[in-house]
Amino acid sequence: MNRNEKILLSALRGRRTMRPPFWYMRQAGRYLPEYRELRARADGFLDFCLTPDLAVEATLQPIRRFAPDAAILFSDILVLPWALGQEVRFEEGTGPLLEAVTDTAGLAGLDGSDVEGRLAPVAETVSRLAAELPEAVALIGFAGAPWTVATYMVEGGGSRDFAAVKGWAYRDPDGFQALIDLLVQATVIYLRMQVAAGAEAIQIFDTWAGVLPEADFRRWVVAPTAAIVAALKAESPRVPVIGFPRGAGMLYEAYVRETGIDAVGLDTAVPPSWAAAALQPLVPVQGNLDPVRVVTGSDGMFAAAGRIVDALAGGAHVFNLGHGLIPTTPPENVTALSGFLRGLKKSP
Ligand code: 1CP
Predict the structure, then answer these.
(1) DSSP string covering 48-85, please?
(2) Residue whose CB lies within 8 A of the most ligand 1 atoms, among 26, 38, 190, 242, for a mutation test
(3) Quick check: is 76 catalytic?
(4) Residue nearest to atom 15 of ligand 1 (CA)
(5) Cα 26 to middle of ligand 1, angstroms
(6) Tell me: the pLDDT tens digits for 160-195?
């Protein structure tokens, strides 16, 4: 055992740690006043993600405040469609808006030949962070999973029913496969670039994994993720890959067994006791406090966090939320939760 290994990486490699390391999905963002101030200085959200000075600062803000065990690169999953040539905008209040690609003809407008060039600013952000972060803090890089990124590309933004993206996948699976293949290829390039720049772990966000029936889940969630993991592992076998198949429910176990991921993120609905029995013997688990618990805070927050820590104490566990922090979160609740987590010690 490497005594200088960062606690996050120890846990992601399956080791028992003296306390669960912790970080928070969306630990940077609108709930922080210093983020809102920084955001006001950028021309738009994409510009924010692609300006290393701003992205480095946004990544470091929650590290200074809460001293979590990991920093996550400040960027967005939708920089990848932009790098493929799709028009992507972030509208104040409405979220992302994309020029929808809904069929094979639309695919002709995408170009995967310069992902590295267009996303070079992200690599610069990662390498600056690798140099600037406190010694004990691990740096996590990320990308969206092909299925989740495809939902935004095909729907033209967020969706309630996913009728356009499912419609294409059901009507013309071979055509849709070409989009997924392009995304797998581009995602591998993008994540390899982040690892080369200094990312020490990778998270693959599959926010909309839970909307697919089983057969389609295997084809559009499991298979593309497995291909990405295999390609990353071929080059960097020591860099842990965390998969987050949000909403996968009864398919969580198949996802873990069939993708080759090193650790799995649990959404808020996954019972920790079930995860301890079914998933933790296979891989370290990460999660899964309800982000709304951090809005309401007080005793209920500590009790809910304590229940998760206790249920997952028998194996490797990275404490996190079941989804990202929301804009109404009082930062002082995050401070209090972080103090609680740092004070934990595992009984021998
Ligand atoms: O104007 C703003 O400030 C925009 C808010 C915002 C922020 C802070 C967006 C727009 N993206 C981000 C940053 C972001 N996005 C990070 C940064 C690092 C951190 O966590 O601190 C990460 C990891 C993401 C990933 C992301 N973007 C996901 C996957 C994780 C998840 O939350 O489910 C998804 C689905 C997106 C798309 C996206 N980007 C932004 C919004 C509002 C959305 C969601 C739209 C929707 O609800 O469908």
Answers:
(1) HHT-HHHHHHHHHHHHHHH--SEEE-S--TTHHHHHTT
(2) 26
(3) yes
(4) 76
(5) 7
(6) 999 999 999 999 999 999 999 999 999 999 999 999
> What local confidence, expressed as pLDDT, does residue 348 receive?
52
* Amino acid present at 153: M
For 65, 136, 163, the CA distances from 156, given in Å and listed in that order, are 35, 40, 12
Active site residue 171: no
Q: Say whether 293 is catalytic.
A: no
Question: Is residue 168 within 8 Å of 107, Cβ to Cβ?
Answer: no
pLDDT of residue 1: 52
* Residue 347, pLDDT score: 61
R_g over Cα of the chain: 19
Residue ranges, the chain, pLDDT below 50: none
Entry pTM? 0.97
State the Cα–Cα distance between residues 63 and 249, nearest whole angstrom: 32
> How far is 214 from 70, CA to CA, in rounded Å?
33
